[in-house]
Amino acid sequence: MIKISIISKNFIFLDKSFNSRGEAIEFAAQKLYDAGRITDIQKVVAGVWEREKEFSTYMEGGIAIPHCKVEQVKATTIVIIRNDWELAWADQQERADLIFLLVVVAQKANKVHLKILAELAQAIMDQEWIKGIKTATDPEMVLKQLEKFNNYKIN
Questions:
Q1: For the segment 80-129, what is each residue's pLDDT rounded down to a tens digit?
Q2: Strand 12-16, strand 95-105: pairing
Q3: Which of 71, 72, 106, 152 might form a disulfide with 40, Cβ 3.0–4.6 angstroms?
Q4: What range does the domain containing 86 cover?
Q5: For residue 155, is it within any domain?
Q6: Residue 60: half-sphere exposure toward Cβ, Cα within 13 Å
Q7: DSSP secondary structure of 43-95
Q8: In total, how many domains does the chain have?
């Protein structure tokens, strides 16, 4: 089970109007920096792009799970962004409007990041779960939807 402390309504952004995946990732990194969860915006963004070079983090159904594990991450966190339109991901065929950005504390990365990615990948297979997130009208509704999968518990 993912600890809900890595997910907060403060990191859920709905109805955004980004024009590129880069804008969305930089926005998320800025929010993480402002909250003290990362120490360097550029290093985190670079870590995400390094990971994207390995292979695309695009998933089916308009979803992407970009992620990185770098030393500049102070607290493992998931940022959820729902954009008003799909953004080109690795190519024009891969287009995502729902982004789960995962940043992981490097020292704890091996076990933590694979477990979180596996749980997210499993969750996004559930079309009703995704529909709940894509139609939520506020961050609280997204948190309630997260509770439905894998026994999430909000503290």
A1: 999 999 999 987 789 999 999 988 887 765 677 777 777 888 888 888 88
A2: unpaired
A3: 72
A4: 4-148
A5: no
A6: 7
A7: HHHHHHHHHHHHS--EETTTEE--EEEETTBSS-EEEEEEEEEEEE-SSTT-E
A8: 1
